Amino acid sequence: MGSVFVAGATGVIGSAVLAALGEAGADVVAGTHIPEEIEPLAREGVQARVFDFSDQESMVRAMQGCDRLFLTLPLAEGMTRRGHLAVQAAKAAGIGHIVRSSAYAASSDAHWRLGREHGTVDQFVEDSGIPFTILRPNSVMQRFVSVLAPMVRSGVLALPEEYAKVSYIDACDIGACAARLLLDGEAHHGRTYALTGPQGISLAEVAAILSGAIGREVVYRPVDESVYVENLSRDNVPEWTVNMLVSLTRVVKLGMMGNVTGAVAHLTGGEPRSFAAFASDHAGIWS
């Protein structure tokens, strides 16, 4: 058996997959588009190769000697084109199994833009002729320690999601599921799994959990979509990404993201991590 190529290995989900594969002692090649990340990965004993999602030949070279691919894509304009190039590169490199990390409720004919973008890439994977498994995780808890961390520190979560629930999932659980499929996934070829955390919670409930974890008040303040867009634009978020994020908040408000599945337990044998446990473990980040 050859190596596993992890595309986007230093992103939130990619790094979780890399860690899970490392714990299992797998032979892994980490793919990154940032040359400066090669040395830190090497110090951790991880072979890393630079590639460019917009350059198919660079991906073919990076995947050489690998027979399995974990494919996640950055949230950036041109995502579907990059996904198509990655799938074509996988075919050229002789990849024998693709585990694709998509998005919850994604579909090539989804009525919401981000779901449609992800779903189109999923369709490329399905049509490739390469054995595949698709993971569709809900919103990751790590958003609250990255892009939403400043809001948490300010004490106010200002988002346009009303009081709809989301079954947030820890990226580590996604990593564990992907690692299981990459190492022993033949029985799961052709299948799609919706990954969630153990419960659906609203942002008001998120704020209450965060308050308890960090020992000071955090509140949820619903805002109009126009205010959210203005804040993203002020932070120089690209227009395409703004549109994708707005589409996500709209589908949350429709109540489509609060369902809970048993896929994590089915794939890993363990229950998914709760948001309360996540908040407790990361409390220092918001201090």
Automatic annotation (TrEMBL):
Gene3D superfamilies: NAD(P)-binding Rossmann-like Domain, UDP-galactose 4-epimerase, domain 1. It comes from the Bacteria. Residues 4-251 form the NmrA-like domain. PANTHER family: PRESTALK A DIFFERENTIATION PROTEIN A (PTHR43162:SF1), PTHR43162. This is NAD(P)H-binding protein. It comes from Pseudodesulfovibrio alkaliphilus. The lineage of its organism: Bacteria, Pseudomonadati, Thermodesulfobacteriota, Desulfovibrionia, Desulfovibrionales.
